[in-house]
Design a protein that fits this description.
This protein is an alpha/beta fold. The protein has a domain of 215 residues: FAD/NAD(P)-binding domain (3-Layer(bba) Sandwich), CATH 3.50.50.60. It is 34% helix and 27% strand. The protein contains 14 helices and 19 strands. A 7-stranded mixed beta sheet has the order 6-5-14-15-16-13-17. It has a 6-stranded mixed beta sheet with strand order 8-2-1-12-19-18. A 3-stranded antiparallel beta sheet has the order 3-7-4. The chain is globular and about 65 Å long. The termini are far apart.
């Protein structure tokens, strides 16, 4: 490793793997530490909006990630009587398709891209902190020096907290049970089988989307104080009362799944010395615009670019934050506004949802991150025009 810069990365999720792959592709020696004894895939599935698609292409994970995945062309919101409130139409250009991908497949594709590029992935390795001078501290007592340490260890980041970088960490009051269920043959050609649909009933939402020919992604979203609705295993009877027309879907849910509370994280700054914080550890947000992973991926890729191209690590990290922070915080704000609709009564929420999808101004704000060309992915910018954003 003589003459090469070296990076130690805490966290083997999307942000850590993108950063690891991108740094290794730029000639760094890289070691990624994942606390679990397997590659984690919490959250069940994810949507690859245009920005995340470009990130995955830039790190050579796209083709593997979308094998067998279901393309997404139309997203609807429907009310408690199954009536359409609004419709968002995605791009129909072949080079800008959005897919619903299982997280296990996405994470494995990124892990494979990272190792192909020369990164090492160490499982069962728990990071407990870092020193600003460039040392990752491990639970087993190891002190791992590096030119760059990356804290991509999630909302509960030990790396971030040990450096006092958190400015605000706030539970958002609602969360989700997210899981995959078997897809029935009839759903391959049904109206629901060709769309991603968010159903609303009171303060509860049920999100439905095909993930592949064999699996459907479900997200049961609701406030944390709804004890019956947040129960795991899923309380079938309770959810069927909220969505009786989805009984067939809800009855397919087994005993797996877990309840996750959504959180918001904002930092004083994104780095301390030679330690950078990325992903949910730095910018956790409401999932209501589908940009948690997209933002994490963009920031991880650009971190590798700036750290590699700047004369010094300190200068690279300063440039990185100056370039990316405004868009990230705008995305967090918009996601929070959309997430707050859960607490609004239906007679107010429904007109807002209907009007919101028709407002080109509002949709530009909602989709700003989705249409962004990430630093490091300029080769995958759209060649002509811009994707559809709503109808």
């Amino acid at each position: 490793m003589a003459g090469r810069r070296h990076a130690e990365i805490a966290g083997g999720g999307i942000a850590g793997l993108v950063a690891g792959a991108a740094l290794a592709q730029r000639g760094w020696s890289v070691r990624i530490h994942e606390r679990a004894d397997h590659m984690r895939a919490y959250g069940a599935a994810i949507f690859t909006w245009y920005n995340l698609m470009r990130v995955l292409k830039a790190v050579d994970a796209w083709d593997e990630a979308i094998v067998g995945a279901a393309p997404f062309l139309t997203r609807e919101s429907r009310d408690a009587r199954n009536r359409v409130i609004n419709t968002i139409v995605a791009s129909d250009r072949p080079d800008e398709r959005i897919f619903c991908i299982s997280r296990r497949q996405l994470v494995q594709a990124l892990a494979n891209a990272a190792t192909r590029s020369g990164a090492e992935i160490e499982l069962g390795a728990v990071a407990i902190g870092a020193e600003a001078g460039g040392v990752l501290l491990m639970q087993d007592g190891r002190r791992l020096p590096a030119d760059l340490v990356v804290g991509a260890d999630g909302v509960y980041s030990k790396v971030r907290d040990g450096l006092g970088l958190a400015r605000r960490r706030q539970p958002l009051g609602d969360g989700a049970i997210r899981l995959l269920i078997p897809r029935l043959e009839k759903e391959l050609t049904s109206d629901m089988g060709r769309k991603s649909i968010e159903f609303w009933s009171g303060r509860r939402r049920l999100f439905y989307s095909a993930c592949s020919d064999h699996e459907v992604y479900l997200a049961f979203m609701l406030p944390a104080d709804d004890r019956e609705g947040t129960a795991v295993p899923v309380n079938h009877a309770s959810w069927i009362r909220s969505f009786p027309f989805l009984e067939d879907v809800i009855q397919r849910v087994g005993d797996d799944g877990r309840w996750d509370l959504f959180e918001y994280v904002r930092l004083h700054r994104w780095s301390a010395g030679r330690v950078a914080i990325v992903g949910d550890a730095a910018n956790a947000m409401s999932p209501n615009t589908g940009q948690g992973a997209g933002t994490a991926g963009m920031n991880a890729l650009s971190l590798a670019v700036f750290a590699s191209e700047a004369p010094t690590i300190d200068e690279g990290l300063a440039r990185w934050e100056a370039r990316e922070r405004a868009l990230t915080e705008h995305t967090q704000f918009v996601a929070g506004v959309w997430g707050a609709l859960t607490r609004w009564p239906a007679f107010i929420r429904t007109p807002v949802l209907r009007w919101g999808a028709r407002s080109r101004w509002l949709m530009r704000h909602r989709q700003r991150a989705a249409h962004h060309v990430p630093t490091g992915a300029e080769a995958f910018a759209p060649s002509t025009g811009s994707p559809a954003i709503g109808s």
